[in-house]
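step: validate -> pass
step: tokenize input -> pass
step: predict -> running
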Amino acid sequence: MNIVKTSRELSSQNFSFVPSEEWALNGKFAAAWDELVGSWDRLEADRYMKPGDDYRKRRFCKYRVDVADMKLVELNDFSFYQLSAVNSYAGGLRRDFAPVEPEIRRNVVISSIVRTCLEAINASQQKPSRKWQVYLHQIRINCNRKVFGQPTPEGLHRDGHDFISMHLMKRVGIDGGTSRICSLDGQRLMTVTLRNRMDGFLVNDSALLHGVSQIMPSAADAGHRDMLIIDYNRDE
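step: predict -> pass
step: emit ->
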């Protein structure tokens, strides 16, 4: 990722679209990437979905990061909470998700993404933060001919963090899934369909809204959309 370009855009417009080609995932990262992407096949059902909304699977974990050494320190806490005012669909309750598998928590691609995004975030700030709490979500949205998948059932929203990054892992047999980035008053700033691995955004979550349209099967009877979502919260 071009940290200078990304941090400049984050500072000037509160978001940056980072396409696939800006991430170097070949060579030494190839095996780690395959291991990471394969882990989406082992996600567990999100038991906090409303009746009938059985299209989402996920895993979750937390880290503490000090930018002095950029070491990701795993936290033994897999609970997640959002205010109802932030998440109208599932906010207001503690959600205890299935943990990200231990070997995936330590995957070199994960650590590289987190470190690179934190560098860009801090470079965009007049007063950079040294310590961060980082939350990692593995999410799969399924769809079939009877049930279309809703990547953001809460609609256009904030997540309630300082910054977030969103990265496409894989699209399989789907149409739809168009991402929108909007100002807090709903003005559309960017619309794009993430199609290639690691297409995604880095967003100032306190300043903007985001949402994704529903997905439906294309040629096959079923399909899915795999996303890596990372939350960045100042910890000092």
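step: describe -> The mean pLDDT is 94.
step: cleanup -> pass
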